[in-house]
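Subject: Interface between my chains keeps coming out wrong

I've been trying for a while to get a sensible model of this assembly. When I model each chain on its own everything looks fine, but I need the whole thing in one frame so I can look at the contacts. Pasting all components below, labels as-is. Any help appreciated, I'm running out of ideas.
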Amino acid sequence: MVNRPGSPRWELPEPKEHLALSPQTEAASAAKPLEEHSHLVVRFAGDSGDGMQITGSQFTATNAVYGNDLATLPDFPAEIRAPAGTLAGVSGFQLNFGSQKIYTAGDQPDVFVTMNPAALKVNLPELPNGCVIIANEDAFTDRNLKMAGFASNPLADDSLSKFRVYPVKISTLTNNALADVEMSAKDKARCKNFFALGLIYWMFNRSPEQTMRFLKDKFSKKPVILEANEKAMRAGMNYGETAEAFTTRYEVKEAQLTPGKYRNITGNSAMAIGLVAASKLSGVPLFLGSYPITPASDILHELSRYKNFGIMTFQAEDEIAAVCSAIGAAFAGYLGLTTTSGPGIALKAEAIGLAVMTELPLLIVNVQRGGPSTGLPTKTEQADLLQAMYGRNGECPVAIVAPSTPGDCFHIAIEATRIATKYMTPVMILSDGYLANGAEAWRLPRISDLPRIDVKFRTDPSGYKPYLRDENLARPWVRPGTPGLEHRIGGIEKQDITGNVNYEARNHEHMVKLRAQKIANIAKDIPALKVLGDPEGDVLVVGWGSTYGSITAAVEELRAQGKRVSGVHLRHLNPFPPNLGEILGKFRKVIVPEMNAGQLVKIIRATFNVPAIGVNKIQGQPFRKREVVDGILTHL
Amino acid sequence: MTEAATKLTKADFQSDQDIRWCPGCGDYSILAQVQNVMPELGVPKEKVVFVSGIGCSSRFPYYMNTYGLHSIHGRAPAVATGVKCMSPDLSVWVVTGDGDGLSIGGNHFIHAIRRNVDLNVLMFNNRIYGLTKGQYSPTSELGKKTKSTPMGSVDYPLHPISLALGAEATFVARTMDVDPKSLRYCVKRAAEHKGIAFVEIYQNCNIFNDGAYDSIVEKSIRSDRVLYLEHGKPMIFGKDMNKGLKLNGFQLEVATIGENGVTEKDIVVHDETNPDPTMAFLLSRLDEATFPVPMGVFRAVRRPAFDEMMNDQVKAATQKSGPGDLDSLLNQGDTWEVH
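Reply #2:
Try treating it as a single job with all components included. I did that and got this:
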């Protein structure tokens, strides 16, 4: 059971007389039937300036607090404000929420809210038969229809007959609701997303309480905007209640989640607090050197707010300075972190090599996006795995880990820190745009359950050499300022043990192998893989990173159909978990779904000599469950 | 600690590594003078960090018995910024060259200066690429014939001191490898300055650009060619100490005291603490063909350092919100219980 603040039905915080729902509408609401679903997918779409991301996030937060399990997919253009009404400017947000375990943001929407014709045009190919479409009728003007490429108004002709279409004059109704609010017509028009949100709250029987808190917090110093958005939202709710068009409401009950305390969290946010936690757990203050880049900047923003945790954030002049400052911090004996996306990693490559050569712990977060070059800055992709593995000069291995869900970004940050400090090595975390901006209902870990990160600094000068090694082949970490341990290191090849500059042939080969062995040894120190499903069978589906949700859902569906399909999911990509080879050998076929042209599949083929098969999607969009299922069935 | 530090000698700052600069290189003199100055600073050697990039000059850290990081080409100011921000009690030095600091590392150079990070930047300027064997550098003169410019370079050179002043440097000095006294003075003043301290050091590369500064630093002519800047004193130079710099409108010109009615009062008095960098900039722009070359401290003004302000923010945030608590971090925003 889920305990929520307030009553099971919505309770209005500090209700204002003129805004509260009347007793009559309360009674009327009971009159409209509730249709129960185990899960529903809702997609909001509109212009970049229509506030679809806020609308979607608010509905997400409300469902999360209500107790649903959920996953989201924000999808927005790279341009901040593409020309209004154009196909290029369409911004979308999809939410899948349920009373059951939710693995993905959903394949196709059950309910689609569109704020203009362009948003309808872009999304139309993905709408299933019977989909409920709520359209802002006011925006379907001749001009907008023409811009979207509609020959005639789809709300007026019968081209949408296979859907359940509800045209609503959202702009007019919002404007009417705000008649006595003193603000410009333009500002009033901007409240229409809250009207739509209100309508959705009514339709899904959700309380506006959480959003009210959000508005009060956000607009505490702008009471007029607060009032306007609140009124627009109430108007939307009341409209749903009284308009005769809507006959049905939907009910998605609380999910039976693992007991614990939950919150709604995005991947970038979880990454940020995970890094803070890692700093706390290790007792080593954190330094972030970063340069703004989509979709990683939010980690910089969020960490910048945690200065009271002793965290220092440095917005550098470029990507190279960002990583170099982090290396400086690591040399100084602190956790050095840099956060970026693929193009930034390309610029940081040489410096990462320096961290490999100097064997300093360095945390590198790559929130992957579509590439090459600038590519698709706001879209997701997993095409930097080979870059992470091989994208530097020389033999230059780093440890690589990848979170599987937004909430897992928290745990992966701690794991990366553990590996980096224990083995004195750079660790790259491969997140991606889907995890970064996507959200899930995340069960908070108990602090006592989190691993302690035991970091030792060498302070004893007797017998000290910079490249002495412990049982893990890690060299000692020394904080400058420690008397008697003055030493010099750098990017030139090191003599074994002394760390002195050395160009000898055999020493170089020895050191290359030593650095590789150090990374390989980490395999002994990471958890063995658990197979989803039977330990042997026809097909093993191997995934990594953010495809966890779609692959898990797909494997479960196929297993429910009696197919001999199992799955494993890799959080450690370099080195691989120790039992991966053994597991691979127990299946007739190995299928590797990836959001790239086939990268992990290459490494698996090369490492284990198995004829693994790729299932690939390179569209800047996450896999749908259906696409993974179909991909597997092709080879079954 | 300080007492012990004052007892340190030059030998304490010499590492056990063989020095691998070419025989006759100007770098030897710079190394010797830096090692001479170090014991005078009262800083224990474990609190000293030398960071460098790539180039002949950048081997410097290996020869100092302090902490040192030989990083990658051009990036030393960025590396050093990370060191200094996290360890504000360390004395952090950047050793760079004209190629490392102004070409590949130009961006980091101007931004470290702009931020006023408390670093001491020693730029060995030999107006040539030495380690890559003799290509022209961003300070090479126009028309310079090198392996990569057989018909003469068509790149206009940068003036490091003008660039540093343009980037709002709070301390700027120039000295030369062949003048140990000036070298020690400038290095010491840089060390004592809180904030970015930039020292350009004219350094002779006897292999690829030998004699680059002969027309200035050669002992027989030096007194006529070099103007030693002294705070609060008129800018007088010359073998007979009778020439000086005088303002004519917005330009400086050389005047001879005792000629054309010029007296010492007409000579501009050097003020390194002037908050307005205009005069320092004028000095940095003097054409070395027709003017003396200023040596010494051009500018020394105080402004809060970047690392100080960064650490102050951390302290202020901690005082305001208390030391960060993991539990409240996890529990921020809306949470709910599932039983």
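Reply #3:
Confirming on my end. Chain B has twelve helices and twelve strands.
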